[in-house]
Amino acid sequence: MFDDQKVENIDAIGKFLRSGIYKASNAIKKDELQKFIDNNEEEMKKEYESVPEGQYYKWDIGKKGENFPSKHRYDFSKAYDHSRVVLKVFADDKESSDYINANYVDGYDLPRKFIATQAPIPGTVNDLWRMIFDTNSGTIVTLTKLVENNATKCEKYWADDGEKMFGDISVTTVKTEKLPDLDIRYYKVKRYDDVQEVIHYHFLGWPDTGTPTDPKKLLQLIDKVRKSPNMSPLRPIVAHCSAGVGRTGTFLLLFNVVEMAEKSDTVDIYKYFAKMRTQRVNVLETLDQYKFVYKTLLTAINNKM
């Protein structure tokens, strides 16, 4: 049921899920956030470390022989059973699986607002487009380059120009905009007689390890996604880096608390971090990423005030 973990880590996770998660909250008034960041370095560390790493729930479907390892980029990250995206399989389709390494993640005020997933590998590119089509997602956010430090991080799943087939799904690149550290592609996605429009935001300013050198560019990305004509409560945002864990989790947490800051007098990064980790394993991987969310949120608030 659970992958090999140290007993003490399993005990910490069990204790956290039974009681700790209900205490994971630190609501801070927006006008006091600067003071908190300046004077509570140790408190931020305690918050981050109080949310255990590791597997919280079953991922039995992802471990099945037909899915593992063939549908996984890394062996440490699989999709929890309870929050995984289930692909549609037609009655006459004897080959396809309903599994993809992807989980729904709640938004600030909307359940299942996001889908956090791994970057596709050669054998799962078609599955990625099946998921995008099945869920009617109008927005993709990519937070990794295809190759970083001479290692492949993401299989290319689009054509620079024109049409490309992915199984029974046709993807046509209609237009591409190139901005500093951001490529925006517009796709027409067709399956039989059904056509959907998808916008792909490919952010190139985030190193594999660490955080973006210019947080304002990440805030601009979030602003563009939020103002996208494809934004709808019925259309989840698909987000991925390479594993769909560190950079993806950082982006989703920042997205949530930016929305919270616009709709509330207080912000609670700790609460939403803890909640996200119950929906996808190890989202947001490092203390530096956690502090980055605090500091970048402050930048967002200061720019609005």
From TrEMBL:
Family matches, as Pfam families: Y_phosphatase (PF00102)
Gene3D superfamilies linked to this entry: Protein tyrosine phosphatase superfamily
The Tyrosine specific protein phosphatases domain, residue ranges: 216-291
Catalyses which reaction(s): O-phospho-L-tyrosyl-[protein] + H2O = L-tyrosyl-[protein] + phosphate
Keyword Cytoplasm part of the UniProt annotation: no
InterPro entries tied to this protein: Prot-tyrosine_phosphatase-like, Protein-Tyr_Phosphatase, PTP_cat, Tyr_Pase_cat, Tyr_Pase_dom
Keywords noted in UniProt: Hydrolase, Protein phosphatase
Protein name per UniProt: protein-tyrosine-phosphatase
